[in-house]
């Protein structure tokens, strides 16, 4: 397990030492809350800065119809509060938000959190060896916070990507992004258009199709979606009882979810250089998965050849994120659903016009067009040692960090869910975030116990790690030539995904190696 149980002090610091130390955490989603809980347990003063009025992060912001997780919840939960009470194996958004809130309340994190306040800029003050963090509240009040350590817990997927389709601004009827769902707009009985068929679109479609007059789905490319019988199941009272009362079973249940993720990863994602049909699959196992997925599509669309053709991707399974079929394919057979694969030409008042000249009249347009993932940490400005900004260092879209966490020239700066840490092969993002929280806690312990003012990752381990990541990823499904997704940057480098099995990443981050860091003591006055 990643279990970041309280990192124990080797030498208990004096109360005055702790009182003089401060950690700033940006964001209170799953990771920010875990970070807060662990800092609190260790007695380290901290402030969480949260732009929203609530904890929850992505689970607070995404409220679209059908929202839910597609990782099994008994694994997609904190190892230190595994919650035997999940009602579903794959919970819906409100249940997950309630779980994060409960954890935050248990640790009374609201006492440490500045809600409705957004970080605009963080600058490393080389004299004081502190981060100076500029914030602005929703009502425009500016402030500055000083902290020894800065942890970003802003996630990779918080800035909506709006498509640049000519005429979008002329639509004039309600138009909104899935991550900014406008609940004041009723969709029942309306002609709804939806652009995008990724994880968000695939959940919205089946949730609204039964009540809208017509749903027109504009698909640029199809995504693979896997059937999982547990997806729709509720957890029986008996199972809940066992999970609550038989800890050994609970551990085993979580472990087998962990293990099956690692297993999938192994067999399906690596390119076999001798595999003949690399356009459609990567290896024998991957080809088998492809056949199963196609058979599933065919059976769900009643063998309609037109729908099979439109809904079946060319690229190998796992090239883009593997989705869960939440009755998406069955939905495509509804008489009030149209899957449009002709590309969009432009948008006019109340209509989307496709390249074939067809005018699709709509009352509402939903943009399920994803996020600006690759511009990591944007729109914040982060300025490190020597005045270098993170954008100067990373360029527009080439984020790199040691273990996905630390960056040369940025002392005492820790990124969670950072470069190359996204789990695109199954497995729980919460597991990864706990690995990162644990690593950061170990680093903070090193700073405090060693009476060090700063720690900055050395160039050599940083570069060696990047090389390892790039080498491993070049053999994976996402690097597949011709594959476009939010995993790759504009130069085709996979910047978002982790190439490691869960257990590998856990082992990589289990210890903090001080030899990989340059430590600096504060100059005495
Ligand atoms: O975004 P996406 P998402 N014209 O980028 C299309 C997590 N997540 O919000 O594939 C026309 O995957 C684009 O087309 P194409 C999860 O990690 C998890 O759905 O590029 N179409 C694609 O179909 C996920 O991977 C959950 O050809 C345009 C879609 O929009 C990540 O969030 C739920 C277009 C964008 O898909 C992002 O998922 C939701 C244009 N100009 C999200 N621009 C669960 O756990 C984009 N598209 C269940």
From TrEMBL:
MF-aspect GO terms: monooxygenase activity
Keywords of the record: Monooxygenase, Oxidoreductase
User: Membrane-spanning residues where?
Assistant: none
State the name under which the record lists this protein. Monooxygenase
Origin species: Sphingomonas psychrolutea
Query: Source taxonomy lineage?
Result: Bacteria, Pseudomonadati, Pseudomonadota, Alphaproteobacteria, Sphingomonadales
């Amino acid at each position: 397990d990643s279990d970041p149980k309280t990192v124990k002090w080797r030498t208990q610091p004096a109360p005055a030492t702790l009182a003089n130390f401060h950690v700033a955490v940006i964001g209170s989603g799953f990771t920010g809350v875990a970070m807060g809980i662990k800092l609190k347990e260790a007695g380290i003063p901290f402030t969480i800065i949260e732009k929203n009025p609530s904890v929850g992060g992505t689970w607070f912001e995404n409220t679209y119809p059908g929202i839910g997780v597609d990782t099994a919840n008994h694994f997609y939960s904190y190892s230190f509060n595994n919650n035997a009470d999940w009602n579903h194996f794959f919970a819906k958004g409100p249940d997950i938000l309630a779980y994060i809130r409960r954890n935050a309340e248990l640790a009374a994190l609201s006492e440490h959190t500045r809600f409705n306040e957004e970080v605009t800029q963080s600058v490393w003050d080389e004299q004081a060896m502190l981060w100076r963090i500029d914030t602005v509240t929703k009502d425009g009040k500016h402030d500055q916070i000083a902290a020894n350590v800065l942890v970003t817990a802003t996630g990779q997927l918080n800035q909506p990507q709006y498509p640049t389709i000519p005429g979008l601004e002329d639509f004039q009827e309600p138009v909104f992004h899935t991550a900014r769902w406008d609940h004041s707009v009723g969709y029942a009985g309306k002609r709804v258009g939806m652009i995008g068929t990724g994880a968000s679109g695939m959940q919205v479609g089946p949730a609204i199709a039964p009540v809208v007059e017509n749903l027109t789905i504009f698909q640029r490319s199809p995504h693979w979606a896997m059937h999982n019988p547990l997806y729709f199941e509720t957890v029986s009272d008996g199972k809940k009882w066992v999970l609550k009362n038989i800890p050994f079973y609970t551990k085993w249940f979580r472990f087998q979810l962990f293990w099956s993720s690692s297993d999938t990863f192994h067999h399906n994602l690596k390119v076999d250089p001798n595999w003949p049909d690399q356009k459609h699959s990567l290896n024998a196992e991957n080809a088998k998965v492809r056949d199963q997925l196609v058979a599933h599509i065919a059976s769900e669309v009643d063998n309609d050849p037109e729908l099979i053709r439109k809904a079946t991707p060319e690229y190998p399974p796992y090239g883009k994120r593997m989705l869960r079929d939440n009755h998406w394919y069955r939905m495509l057979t509804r008489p009030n659903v149209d899957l449009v694969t002709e590309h969009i030409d432009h948008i006019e008042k109340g209509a989307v016009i496709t390249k074939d000249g067809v005018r699709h009249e709509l009352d509402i347009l939903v943009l399920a067009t994803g996020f600006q993932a690759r511009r990591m940490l944007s729109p914040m400005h982060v300025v490190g040692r020597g005045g270098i900004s993170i954008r100067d260092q990373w360029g527009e879209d080439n984020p790199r960090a040691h273990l996905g966490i630390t960056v040369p020239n940025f002392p005492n700066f820790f990124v969670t869910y950072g470069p190359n840490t996204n789990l695109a092969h199954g497995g729980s993002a919460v597991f990864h975030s706990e690995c990162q929280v644990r690593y950061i806690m170990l680093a903070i312990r090193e700073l405090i116990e060693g009476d060090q003012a700063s720690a900055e990752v050395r160039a050599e381990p940083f570069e060696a790690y990047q090389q390892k990541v790039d080498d491993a990823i070049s053999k994976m499904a996402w690097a597949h030539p011709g594959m476009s997704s939010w995993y790759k940057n504009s130069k085709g480098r996979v910047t978002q995904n982790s190439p490691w099995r869960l257990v590998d990443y856990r082992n990589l981050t289990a210890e903090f190696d001080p030899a990989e860091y340059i430590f600096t003591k504060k100059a005495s006055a």
